[in-house]
Amino acid sequence: MTAPTPLIAGNWKMNGDAASIDEARSVAAQLGGKEVRVAICPPATLIERMSRALAGTAVIVGAQDCHCDETGAFTGDISAEMLADAGARLVILGHSERRAGYGETDELVSHKVAAALRAGLEPIVCVGETLEQRKAGNALAVVTGQVRGSLPSELAGKAWSVAYEPVWAIGTGLTPTISEIEEMHTAIRATLRELFGAEGDSPPILYGGSVKPANAAQILHAAEVGGALVGGASLEAEDFLGIIRAL
User: Fold this and answer.
1) pLDDT for 172-225, tens place per residue?
2) With bands split at pLDDT 50, 70 and 90, how would you rate the model's confidence at 2?
């Protein structure tokens, strides 16, 4: 089966203002002809402006979260339909910062994934273990359990991806060994095949957690790594392009 097209997605988290859109423009202008999909997920305040700025380019604009419901009395929340209306085409869901800081469960993430699909957004579903879980020898069980609990059956036949982000590697400068990454990505792929049959070979499995230009080539060429979910290194065009060019 043909390998899925790699996806490199930048998660700007709670960073960026109007001037930051120039960094996204610079990425779009320098992409070249690489066989890779590139996305930038800015704060919700920038989605519409970035979508207009990048119209006609190869860069996909995404969002960082969504609510399960289409409308309602949910002060401060944003529905998937609203994100799509603003110009988003994909959305990050189940990031460890959402799971840990806001108590998001696998069940809630699954509902959000269904909401994203309802609105025509492509989900990037995040999974990952804490350092304590890895030290206890539970990393594989924790992550494959998150995969099973966070991916609804509605994903069948749709475009989506999984992002493996070991919680202890996010923003710390630490990364797992290549063998640890390959072991986890292989286990995730086996779980996707278990859930979706042959279709489980289609979604790319991204790696995230302190990805930067210096380590990107080694990570991106590891077995079953189909791209990257990039945090801080996606905020500046040259760093982000350095990761994209490492493919």
Assistant:
1) 888 899 999 999 999 999 999 999 999 999 999 999 999 999 999 999 999 999
2) low
- Tell whether 168 is covered by a domain: yes
For the chain, the domain total comes to 1
CATH value at residue 87: 3.20.20.70
- Cα–Cα distance measured from residue 104 to residue 94, given in angstroms and rounded to the nearest whole number: 7
Question: Which of 129, 165, 185, 224 does the annotation list as catalytic?
Answer: 165
Considering only CA atoms, which of 145, 160, 229 is closest in space to residue 200? 160
Please say if 221 is a catalytic residue.
no
Structural domain boundaries, residue 140: 35-244
Residue 145 lies in a domain: yes
Written as one letter, the residue type at 183 is E
The band of 240, judged by pLDDT with boundaries at 50, 70 and 90, is: very high
Q: List the catalytic residue out of 23, 81, 95, 224.
A: 95
Catalytic site residue 97?
Answer: no
* DSSP string computed for 190-244: HHHHHHHGGGGGSS-EEEESS--HHHHHHHHTSTT--EEEESGGGSSHHHHHHHH
pTM: 0.97
